[in-house]
């Protein structure tokens, strides 16, 4: 259920919006939904959501646990690591339950199966969009179970809404997160692990220069992401040199 104030502001926007405004909003919403190669229309989205009516967080977590129990023996035998991605956004959406949104959620998922191959994709943007998530602290707590890293940033509003921010701006202390992860890489390197490097990507970026107007998927412009990559590589190099860490 949405807060009455939020519903009131939504109705006020709808009442003053034009048909073009509503079409643009609908296109933006449909562009970010997973599970289809093509964008949903409203009837097809409602049909998909109806399939999950009555699914609770507990049932979803139980299903995930059974899946992990089935695949982990093969993952261990073949050297495959699994990294579940956090909910994006990390809160209930369109009536669907969310079970990968908070530190407690991550603890529960890792407890479902103790194998090191059952791990996390540590997405700082998704987790950073939830108030109360301490990203450097979570990176430190779950370091040995992180298998993939998405580095991006967001700025949150008091009402829970958020916007994409510059990689080194926003609410997430990305420098501290990178420091934690580089130290984890060193631990793995010293332990003699062949896969000691943590793969990462700069994830998302703003449209810059001739990114503007190109038919890219929202959030994935070439130059904007290269800027983020350059900033993160600079942070990594500085921390590594100061602390003598491998990169």
User: Strand order, biggest sheet?
Assistant: 1-2-3-6
| Helical content band | 40-55%
CATH H level, superfamily name of one domain: Divalent-metal-dependent TIM barrel enzymes
Cα-based radius of gyration, to the nearest Å: 20 Å
Distance between the termini: 46 Å
Using the 3D structure, state the CATH architecture of one domain. Alpha-Beta Barrel
The portion of residues forming beta strands comes to 5-15%
Assign the CATH topology of one domain: TIM Barrel
Order of secondary-structure elements: HHHHEHEHHEEEHEH
What is the typical, i.e. mean, pLDDT? Answer: 93
Extended strand count? 6
SSE layout and pairing:
Elements: H1 4-16, H2 19-31, H3 42-50, H4 57-78, E1 82-84, H5 103-112, E2 118-123, H6 124-128, H7 135-141, E3 146-150, E4 153-156, E5 162-165, H8 174-190, E6 200-201, H9 222-243
Describe the structure using short key phrases.
alpha/beta; globular; four-stranded parallel sheet; 247 residues; 9 helices; TIM Barrel; two-stranded antiparallel ribbon
Condensed summary:
Helix content is about 50%, strand content about 10%.
Walkthrough of the structure:
- The protein is an alpha/beta fold and 247 residues long.
- Helices cover 48% and strands 10% of the residues.
- A four-stranded parallel beta sheet has the order 1-2-3-6. Strands 4-5 form a two-stranded antiparallel ribbon.
- Helix 7 runs parallel beside helix 8 (174-190) and helix 8 (174-190) packs across helix 9 (222-243).
């Amino acid at each position: 259920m949405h807060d009455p104030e939020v519903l009131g502001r939504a109705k006020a926007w709808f009442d003053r919006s034009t048909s073009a405004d509503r079409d643009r909003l609908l296109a933006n919403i449909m562009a970010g939904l997973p599970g289809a190669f093509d964008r949903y229309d409203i009837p097809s989205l409602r049909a998909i959501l109806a399939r999950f009516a009555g699914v609770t967080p507990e049932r979803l977590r139980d299903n995930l646990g059974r899946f992990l129990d089935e695949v982990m023996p093969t993952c261990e035998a073949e050297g495959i690591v699994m990294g579940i991605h956090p909910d994006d956004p990390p809160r209930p959406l369109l009536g669907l339950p969310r079970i990968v949104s908070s530190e407690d959620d991550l603890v529960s998922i890792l407890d479902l199966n103790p194998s090191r191959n059952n791990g996390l994709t540590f997405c700082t943007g998704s987790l950073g969009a939830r108030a109360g998530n301490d990203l450097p602290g979570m990176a430190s707590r779950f370091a040995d179970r992180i298998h993939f890293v998405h580095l991006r940033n967001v700025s949150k509003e008091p009402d829970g809404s958020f916007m994409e921010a510059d990689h080194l701006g926003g609410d997430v202390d990305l420098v501290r997160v990178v420091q934690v992860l580089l130290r984890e890489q060193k631990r793995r390197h010293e332990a003699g692990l062949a896969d000691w490097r943590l793969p990462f990507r700069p994830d998302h970026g703003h449209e810059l220069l001739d990114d503007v107007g190109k038919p890219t998927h929202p959030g994935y412009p070439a130059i904007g992401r290269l800027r983020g990559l350059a900033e993160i590589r600079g942070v990594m190099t500085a921390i590594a040199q100061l602390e003598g860490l491998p990169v």
